[in-house]
Amino acid sequence: MRVSVIGCGHLGIPHAAAMAEIGHEVIGVDLDQARIDRLNTGESPIYEEGLPELLAAHTASGRLRFTTSLAEAAEFADVHFLAVGTPIDADGRSYDTGQVFGAARALAPHLTRPTVIIGKSTVTVGTTRDLAALLARLSPAGEEVEVVWNPEFLREGHAIDDTLRPDRIVVGVPSPRAEDAVREVYAPLLANGIPLFVTDPATAELIKGAANAYLGMKISFINGVADMCAAAGADVQQLTEAIGLDPRIGRGGLNAGPGYGGGCLPKDVRAFTASARTLGATEAATLLRAAEEVNESRPTAALKLIEQTLGRPVDGVRVTVWGASFKAGTDDVRESPALAVAALMHQRGATVTVHDPHAVHAALRRNPELDYADTLDDSVRDAELIVLATEWPHFREADPKALAPLVADPVLVDLRNLIDADAWRMAGWTVRQLGRPAQQ
C-alpha cells in the first residue's frame, strides 16, 4: 500500500519507518529541507532506539523516501497520516492545532480522488469533525476525503516497538470505507493478533487524553506517597512493589521519581484538564489539576532531598546531574524533570554540570546556562555531589569504585531509585534515594 506521513518529528519519523517495515511504500513530508535531506541519506535527526537501523534499511531499499512536496505525496498515496506537532497553546491549557489545520489546508488542493486522512497527533475533542468539514470544502474530491482519528500511545524511547507491537490500535472512523482503509494499512499487525478498537472519532480523541491523564495521575500519586515515605522513614520502593501486585492497581508506570515530562504527558494532562472544565466536569478537572500540582512540585522536592543529603544549601556546591532527557531511550528534553532540577540548583547558586549519553546537544540549546560533559568520567571530576535524574542503563552500570577517586566527595542522590545502593555504599559512597530511608 502507498502511504504518506506528514510531519517528520518524534512521531512522524518512527511511524514512517515502521510503516515501511511492515511492507508499505512510504513517503514522509516535512517543510524543513535540511531535515528531509538528512532523512533521505538514512540518518535520523532524533534519537530513538531501533530507528537508525530501520531508516538506513528502508531508505536504501527505496521503500521509504522523504520530500517537502505535498503535491508529490498526494499523487503518490491514497492514505495520508497526519503526524504534525500539537504543542500546548498560548493559554497553557489547550492544544495548538495550527499545524494540523495548516497541513490539511496545504494538502487539500491536491486531493483529487477518494482519500483517507488518518490523524495521529493528539488533539482536542471535535478536531476530527472540524478537519473533515474543512477538507470536504477545500478538496477537489470533496466528501470523498474522509478523516479517521488514530491516536498514538507511543512511549518515547520505545516508539518503534510500540508502533510495530502495540497493545492496541484505536481508530475513530466516520464510515465503513474508512474502516476498511485502516484495516488494510494495519493488516500485518492485525494478523499478529494486535486488537483493533473501532469507535467514533470523538471517543478516539478522548481515549488518548484519558490514557495519558490517568498515567499522569498515577505517577503523581506515587510521587506524593514518596513524600509520605520520606517523612515517615518508610521505603517507597517496597511499598510500590506491594501495592503493584494488586491487579486493580498494577505495577506499570508506578515509579517514584522527579516527575513526568516530555512532549506528550504534561501537555496532555493540561489539555485534558481544560477539556474537563469546558465540558462542565469540574470535579474531574479538580482531580486532574491536583495531579499537575504534585508534578510541578517535584523539582522542589528533589532539591529538599539533595540539601538534606548535603547538610547545607546547594549555593556554591559543584553538582553533577546525570541525565538531561526526560526519560531514557530518547534525546527529547522537552519539560525534562532532570533539567528542571539542574536549572533550580543553578538558580540557587550551584555550579551544575550535566551529562547524558544522547541528549547533551539538545539540552545545551534549551539550557545554555548549565555546563555539560560528554563522558561519565569528565562529568564527575571534582564534583561534590552527583544527582541521578534520568534512568539510563549507562548510569546504573557505572562503576562506583572507578568513579570515587575522581570526585571531590563521593555523594550520590538517586532520584530514580536506579542503582544498587548497597554496592555503591560498599565502594565508599554516601547514597540517598527518593522516598527511601537513608540506610537500608
Summarize this structure as a short list of keywords or feature phrases.
440 residues; alpha/beta; six-stranded parallel sheet; 14% strand; globular
Set out the fold topology:
Elements: E1 2-6, H1 12-21, E2 25-29, H2 33-40, H3 51-61, E3 64-67, H4 70-76, E4 79-82, H5 98-107, E5 115-119, H6 127-138, E6 145-149, H7 159-164, E7 169-172, H8 176-185, H9 187-190, E8 196-199, H10 201-232, H11 236-244, H12 265-278, H13 282-296, H14 298-310, E9 318-322, H15 337-347, E10 351-355, H16 360-366, E11 371-373, H17 376-380, E12 385-388, H18 393-396, H19 400-403, E13 411-414, H20 421-426, E14 430-433
Parallel strand pairs: 1-2, 1-4, 2-3, 4-5, 5-6, 7-8, 9-10, 9-12, 10-11, 12-13, 13-14
Organism: Streptomyces pyxinae
Catalytic activity: UDP-alpha-D-glucose + 2 NAD(+) + H2O = UDP-alpha-D-glucuronate + 2 NADH + 3 H(+)
EC number: 1.1.1.22
- Span between N and C termini? 57 Å
- The beta-strand count equals 14
Beta-strand proportion: 5-15%
Question: What is the helix content?
Answer: 40-55%
Mean pLDDT over the full residue set? 95
- Indicate the overall shape: globular
Adjacency order of strands in the biggest sheet: 3-2-1-4-5-6
Q: Please tell me how large the radius of gyration is.
A: 23 Å
**Which residues form runs of ≥5 with pLDDT under 50?**
none
Task: Give me the number of helical elements.
Answer: 20
* Class inferred from helices and paired strands: alpha/beta
Largest sheet, in brief, is: 6 strands, parallel
Protein name: UDP-glucose 6-dehydrogenase
Keywords: NAD, Oxidoreductase
Catalytic activity: UDP-alpha-D-glucose + 2 NAD(+) + H2O = UDP-alpha-D-glucuronate + 2 NADH + 3 H(+)
EC number: 1.1.1.22
